[in-house]
Amino acid sequence: MLQAVLDKDTVGIIIRGEFFELDKLYFLNERLAGTYGINNICLLEGYQEATVVLKSLNYEIRHAEHGDRDLYLAYNGIRKDWFAPKGTPDAQIVKEENANDPQEIIDEIEDAVMMDLDMDLEEFYDMDEDEQCDALEELNLDYDDIEVYLSWFHKDQTWFFKSEDYPDFSENNTYLQFRIPFAEGLLYAMIYRDLLSKKAEFIEKMIQQAKESKNELRDYELDFCRRRLPSELLLAEMLMTQLFSCVYEAVGDDDYEKIEQALPLPGTFKNMTADDILQVEQITIEYPEIDVTSILKFMNRLISLSHRQG
To answer: Taking CA 192 as the corner, what is the angle to CA 186 and CA 193, rounded to the nearest 5 degrees?
Structure first.
């Protein structure tokens, strides 16, 4: 899953995700900038320069995809004990919901072991089958229930899957990972916030552009706009949210409210010039700290560029 994580040791942000998540984000950034697609124009009027900032993010994504950055392994919830050893008969591959365990009888007998025999269950489990049978018969339990329980307890082990069907299964997912300065991450978050405020407009213009196209990409682009573009925009929204969560972690709840109140309004990055963007990049370098005062100064400097330009 695409995520951003605050790294307090390096005063930076780690971005990680699956290869194809980052790849989709890469091409979405190119589409937002107007450098990928049918006509190669930025469809969000006035944001031609602001979207160029995302090229720096794409630079890191591309290097990560080429193996030039880090990898991150995370446990994925798949368990080795779900998979039977090779050669296990099909009869021993059983889903839990299809196991037909006599749960009522199991509960009754194990409760009796603990309460009437005053015996720990682990001690009972360690006994051999004859000893277990003798112990249960002392409790005057129904003989048929005892047989059902012991048959269940000593049945052949079952698993959920055959190893032969999933020879490459893993307990870990491998993600691409790269690091960016904290202020750079906040800048991306603010630009995405501005751009995503025009999400509906962007989708509409993309669809219209595809409909008006006369080349062989028309059908592909229409299919992309209808089926994939909305979810890929959600990837940008997810990254934006994760980046803002890093800011929250850095400053805490009270100070984060100050930052929320100071966030630039939609349109702040509209109509910026190439010179403005150069200044944005320079300002970003000047604020490496992650305290609330530095963050607010950084944001105010960016907003002042917009006001001056306006």
So the answer is: 90
Do β-strands 172-181 and 12-17 pair in parallel, antiparallel, or remain unpaired? antiparallel
Are 4 and 15 in contact by the 8 Å Cβ rule? The answer is yes
Condensed to tens digits (0 to 9), the pLDDT of residues 121-149 reads 999 999 999 999 989 988 888 889 999 99
Of all residues in the chain, the percent with pLDDT exceeding 70 is: 99
pLDDT (0 to 100) of residue 287: 94
**Which structure tokens are listed for 66?**
């080429």
pLDDT of the residue at 211: 93
Let me know: does 144 contact 109? Beta carbons within 8 Å.
no
